[in-house]
Structure prediction request, 293 residues.
Amino acid sequence: GGGGGGERAGREKHPRGTHGGLAGRALALAAGVVAVAALPRAAEVAQGCLADSTSFRPLRESAGPAGQGVTAVVLGFALDRAGRPSPPLEARIRTGVQLLQQGRVERLVFSGGHPGGGLRGGLSEAEVMRRFAEGHVGDGGGTSGAGPLRGAELLLEDRSTSTRENALYSLMALAQEDGRGAAHNLGEVVVVTSCFHQWRARRVFRRAAKQLNLATQVTVAPLETDSDFGSARAFERTLQRALQHKAWAGVRAALMVLLQPVAVVLDSGVALFHVVREILAILLYFSKGWIAF
Prediction:
């Protein structure tokens, strides 16, 4: 009698335990979906926290002759395997060229040496940026009233392999270009870089200017947070290009619905990775005294 009652009690408890396990798994799945859905917004907020373009004055607010004595320094970034500018680097180049064509600055410096310790396609980042600017955005395409780039407006700095070297070598090149030495006033230097890199880049340039005894005002050109890994979205753009093949014509729309969220999540993950790496770089630069507050 007693044994049978125990068996019945066990059988009664088992269904409740099963329901509890299913509920837990459903809750975990829901939490995972929410976390994944929040990734793009988290990436945008994280990038925005490291942006630092509040000191930049648009052309319409700039005092004095438009662009006079102002230089934009476009910082290099990773090239793709074929040696072409990656999407974030494209955004930097386009912004720098736009500043020049609109008259906000009077010259451009493309700063970037040999990526990864060696050349890709035999070219430095600076040379790749120059070619992209002249071949894709230097003809005025997409910019109202813009004219072609002129060689005299471009300066290449192709030795740097870090943000600190970007600053030191670019400022030294500008001082040499002007034929001036120590204590020379370089005017305003507008740093053009991605949002997640702006906070460190501005302070590194300020510190480098002090070390070189060069008087300059360092500002940062505003880029949309999307320009980092948003509208640039490497994974999403790759997916879109792949689906343009005629083999996918019949199922293109369905595949986009299924795969685009995955691409967005991957791009957001890349963005967060760069934010974390940038925070670590800030700590390193601070410890070495390479940042000026």
Remarks:
- The radius of gyration is 26 Å.
- Confidence is low (pLDDT under 50) at residues 60-64, 140-146.
